[in-house]
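Attaching the record inline, Q. Sequence:
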Amino acid sequence: KHLLELTALEKQRAEARDYSGAIAVREERRRAEGELERLDKELLLLQMREQSLRASQLPDRVTLPLEQAELSGVRLEGGVLMGWNKIGASAKWKLPALPPGGYEVILKYRSGPLDGGEILIEEARFKLKGQIDTTLKGPQEKNLGTLKVTDGSGSLTLSVATLIKDKLMDLMAVHLVPASK
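Structure, as predicted:
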């Protein structure tokens, strides 16, 4: 608001042919713009330091509790999310106030010979697709890649994108590993 007032005053003085007054106001406006630019840079630096500090305090692995998931077309049985047998079946978690950044998405699951397909992982703005392969030797952990998280207090959703035949998998755990670790 102050910059707009200075711009208007500068123009007013120039129109009144008070050139020395207009130059003085212009210099004041430039000083104020420089100060605002400096403060913006300082604020950005402080935000980056805060984000770095929060990231350094994260555990090596953030586990999303299966019992806290909001389920659609999936059911929790014996501590395992089952029923991933329709496209769009999903589980959704509220994220635990994570700092924005990249997170490796690691799933622990089991699947039979006719199971598998593709899973879609989504947060507020970004998506990641991962292949779910058959696990003939029992449960396995698979890193599906890095998902950029923009809103660490938002939600994370896993949903069936494609199916090979019967079902996608039986999900035993979901872990997020900060990419900086």
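The mean pLDDT is 91. The chain is about 30% helix and 35% strand.

More tomorrow.
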